[in-house]
Amino acid sequence: xxxxxxxxxxxxxxxxxxxxxxxxxxxxxxxxxxxxxxxxxxxxxxxxxxxxxxxxxxxxxxxxxxxxxxxxxxxxxxxxxxxxxxxxxxxxxxxxxxxxxxxxxxxxxxxxxxxxxxxxxxxxxxxxxxxxxxxxxxxxxxxxxxxxxxxxxxxxxxxxxxxxxxxxxxxxxxxxxxxxxxxxxxxxxxxxxxxxxxxxxxxxxxxxxxxxxxxxxxxxxxxxxxxxxxxxxxxxxxxxxxxxxxxxxxxxxxxxxxxxxxxxxxxxxxxxxxxxxxxxxxxxxxxxxxxxxxxxxxxxxxxxxxxxxxxxxxxxxxxxxxxxxxxxxxxxxxxxxxxxxxxxxxxxxxxxxxxxxxxxxxxxxxxxxxxxxxxxxxxxxxxxxxxxxxxxxxxxxxxxxxxxxxxxxxxxxxxxxxxxxxxxxxxxxx
Length: 430
Fold this sequence. Notes:
mainly alpha; Glycosyltransferase
């Protein structure tokens, strides 16, 4: 037999032998981590104070609530969590669309074109129409609520004449009827920076306008895939309807959005031209957040996940950022977005967001990359203690920005720590 064959066998046996030692060492690190307990306690402290996104926001946002509802379940009774979800259903649009967030009607005044509903007179709603993730976020939130509390009675609750179960499907129908592109078989939205809600063509950028350049991206479609999986688990009798849709979106994400040569997702498929200069090569940009959500949607193989985290680590090194929560690398150049906050490495254009970095950590743990997850978790939990809070985002120099009680960050880090503790428990039982 070939000598290389025996070398390969020996290497494989060595890897198998070292795995228990590696796991044992990691378990010790998890159990003695100097930041985990502080972060857990701080997360519970922050989430007790309410449901708005953070101290810089008056609204309860569904894309945020989706990432801390499980944490909220630790400190609030079921009916409180359920009531927040019911507000979104009572304010559902006549076409099935879901609002971004709601605020007490008497406090409405933040520049939005507010939405009102006879079913929910207490609140004013708003919707950033450049996004295509509100409906998916609500389905995921209801799923997490049921998983966390065991209370599936919410599915039979009524908002007006429709049950929650009916409204969940209606929200998915909205996406297929109003945000689905037939040519590519994928959902569309405005051009934004990865998962962001700011388009380049407007000073604020949260609404579709006559200048909008419509595009397809991985984040919106990966969120939809996760929502469809959740919906079919909540409503198994509807699986026959939604399974083919899920399969179509999954296949088309791989076909049209995955760049096999460069082992990354392309930023956008443009439906009516790009808002950026003709000589700009947008595919040089690597989207961290959309990639993390795509992994959650099951779109990448183990080898592709490994390549993804290696690329993210390299991007952090090249940019000088603090963590793999870096939204993208490189960022869009100066002046590409009319919103002045979207300067290179500013806000969603290359800011460092634990809110998405924490989701990548979760997926690394779930996909057997616990060692890498632990390594990349450290800067995120360290800065919580260093800054005594969960900040919305960080500059490339690791300086905290935005809300200091950003509940989405608290939620994803808390959940990641739960997964590390589960990993330790399961390995101790082996």
